[in-house]
Write a structure and sequence with these properties.
By secondary structure, the protein is mainly alpha-helical. It has one domain. Helix content is 85%, strand content 0%. Helix 1 crosses helix 5, helix 2 runs antiparallel to helix 3 and helix 3 packs antiparallel against helix 4.
């Protein structure tokens, strides 16, 4: 009888695989650059969150008006729009919760940013956004794993 793995086991295995390729086998970021990322990264996340508020509110208002028309245009377009909104909302919430921990250099902040990035990976796969997957998600995961040692 085959043993089923829990989602937690899958996530641990996936994280170990990413660590192998993005930390141990990939070229390392210089130590001084890592320290800059860890020092100023939380501030960049905060600035990104602040600048995203008006954009999110504007897009939310537009989506309230356009959603019925998008669904009429086709289920794939309407569903894609809804999927993007759900993933965006959850990612932003994770980043907000990660922020205080990032300033403290706590592992919990790193983990929340990791989960937010993984949501971006899943969204890019579901939306067939190959460029976003290869550039944004892989680059984000690479940087996260390179600075992981700074979060205890």
């Amino acid at each position: 009888m085959a043993q089923t793995k829990s989602p937690n086991d899958f996530l641990k295995t996936f994280t170990t695989t990413l660590e192998t390729y993005l930390l141990h086998k990939a070229p390392a970021i210089p130590k001084d650059v890592k320290e800059l990322i860890v020092k100023y990264g939380p501030w960049l996340v905060l600035i990104g969150l602040i600048f995203s508020i008006p954009a999110v509110l504007a897009a939310f208002g537009m989506s309230a008006v356009l959603s019925p028309f998008l669904l009429l245009a086709g289920p794939r377009l309407g569903a894609g729009f809804t999927i993007a909104w759900v993933f965006l909302a959850v990612s932003l919430v994770l980043e907000v919760f990660a922020l205080p921990h990032l300033f403290k250099r706590a592992r919990k902040g790193w983990m929340l940013m990791y989960y937010a990035t993984l949501l971006g990976v899943i969204e890019n796969i579901l939306m067939f956004n190959i460029a976003g997957l290869l550039i944004g998600s892989v680059l984000g995961l690479y940087i996260l794993f390179q600075i992981r040692e700074y979060y205890k």
